[in-house]
Every structure is written in structure tokens, then in C-alpha cells.
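Project standup — Tuesday

K.O.: blocked on the structure for the chain from last sprint. Re-posting the sequence here as requested.
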Amino acid sequence: MGRNWIAVAAAEHVRRGRAGGFMQVCHGKAAPLRRIQPGDRVAYYSPTESFGGKDRAQSFTAIGVVRDREPYPFDMGGGFVPFRRDVAWLDGVETPIQPLLDRLDFSAGVKNWGYQLRFGLFAVSDHDADLIAQAMGAAFPAPAQPVLL
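H.V.: unblocked you, prediction finished:
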């Protein structure tokens, strides 16, 4: 199994990524996306509904598995060319983080649990990824098993 990640973006941006089958992180930078590998699992946390807004969401808004394609630039017009990575998004419902805080490895017993979120992308344990998926009502596909001859 690959690694697990939490990415951070406003809910409206995450919904666009879900609809288009991609993810962007850290204002479109390529380097963070290169840390993620095909088969890695990613969940998005959205602190707000809109970028720069004060309209709190504080929810996990998407969860999926990174596809094989490498990060690629995408021209959004107006001179903004962020890097994207393709993701197979799972079916699931947006879920508030608050009820999970005392059970997630990255936040349990941590007073300032939101500090890590400022980085825009960070690795989490299998336990955290599984707990988030369960809370969202999503099911990760079983990892491919090697064929023994």
C-alpha cells in the first residue's frame, strides 16, 4: 500500500477537482504533487467553503486514490498555470472533522491540531485514512495482489 495524505483547499475548489478528476495543492505548485505517488490515498480537508472566505466548512470534502499520471501543468487562463495530479475520487459524503479529532492520530491529544494544515499537504497514518474514509462512507479499493506463478 502507498502513503496517505491530507491536502487542504477551500471546499469550492475541491468540488471542482472532484468533478474534473484532479487535485491541486499549495496554490498549484508542482513540488508537493511530486511527493505523492500513484496508488497513494488522499483526503481533502476544507477549512472554508470559499477561498479566502470566513465561511467555515471544517470538513473532509473528498477522498480518493492517486492515478498513474505524473503531475502536469494546466492553463486556467489569465496567466495562471497550476500543476495538477489525476485522482480516482471515491463516492462519499462531506464530513465534519470535529467528531473525529480525538480519534485521528495526527490530532488526538494535540491542542493545536490545525497547525499541520497550514502546509497544504501532509502525510498521515493508514489508521487516519481509513477512519476518514469510514466517516465519509467511502470504501478504498483493495490493493492489487501480486500474481504468484
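K.O.: great, moving the ticket to review. The chain has one domain: 4-136. The chain has a mean pLDDT of 92.
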